[in-house]
Amino acid sequence: MPITIPKQLPARHILEQENIFLMDTDRATTQDIRPLNIVIVNLMPEKERTETQLLRLLGNSPLQVTATFLHTATHESKTVSQSHLHQFYQTFANIKHKRFDGMIITGAPVEMLSFEEVDYWEELATIMEWAKTNVTSVLHICWAAQAALYYHYGIGKFELPAKCTGVLTHTVANSTVELVRGFDEEFLAPHSRYTGTSGDTIRADDRLLLLSSTKDDDPFIILSRDEKHVMVTGHLEYDHSTLADEYHRDRNKGLDPSIPTNYFPNNDPKEKPLNRWRSHAHLLFSNWLNYYVYQETPYQWE
């Protein structure tokens, strides 16, 4: 089944070229089917790029999905037009009376700040609290994963000696858990962050399951035992070129960024990187939608 998105959304053209099954709102209303309603809190600066990345993964599912995009009212985005936000986004005040089957909270380039220093932290905390009773399952990505660990479980983050950037190898701790069903015992995924969390601290918390880590025991996929929260510290949703764009952007700013680990062929930034994590990205999103959203959400919210 398709993902339902507005006809004018810029991501639509890209996804159609990739043969992602799409449907506009007018056609969706003619079908006698209950779609999954997913709200996406998009905190990334390049919102249009993130929209495409997430819709690509949500659209590769046998389930019909309707996506609602949310932006923060307490932070003014400087990298996306106000007309785009007005046309395709809502704020929490517009949707807080509704219930959603799933929620995705994206990463954000604010990890060097303490959580309370982020200008929209109070608003995000309100959304995370509201989601406890109004959302079946929440998927948190990168900084949002750290924010969820801090807000829900009191687990903090720490600054890394150097930026973690590159395509890292991960192992699966328990392949019987539905979220990682079908995963290889080792798989690749991109990371781009300056902070980390403690694997030992997560393992010591009986409310959490650490499902996947890097070979250096850096936590990657974390699941709450009540299955309400999925926390992914990296970026399986990234395109093949996202890390390259970040690297060249920083170089053009006059910075001296490290070359992303295990990413460019021959470790040469002039060569085109390959996407070697796509299948696991689709698998993670499909497993989340199926086992933690579709099979757990009521057909009709009371």
Automatic annotation (TrEMBL):
InterPro entries: Class_I_gatase-like, HST_MetA, MetA_family. It comes from the Bacteria. It is an enzyme of class 2 (transferase). It catalyses: L-homoserine + acetyl-CoA = O-acetyl-L-homoserine + CoA. SUPFAM superfamilies: Class I glutamine amidotransferase-like (SSF52317). The record marks 192 as: Important for substrate specificity. Substrate binds at residues 163, 192, 249. GO terms for biological process: L-methionine biosynthetic process from homoserine via O-succinyl-L-homoserine and cystathionine. GO terms for molecular function: homoserine O-acetyltransferase activity; homoserine O-succinyltransferase activity. It is found in: Cytoplasm. The keyword DNA damage does not apply. Its EC number is 2.3.1.31. The record marks 111 as: Important for acyl-CoA specificity. The keyword Amino-acid biosynthesis applies. Keywords: Acyltransferase, Amino-acid biosynthesis, Cytoplasm, Methionine biosynthesis, Transferase. The active site is at residues 142, 235, 237. PANTHER family: HOMOSERINE O-SUCCINYLTRANSFERASE. HAMAP family: MetA_acyltransf (MF_00295). NCBIfam families: metA. Belongs to the MetA family. This is Homoserine O-acetyltransferase. The gene is metA.
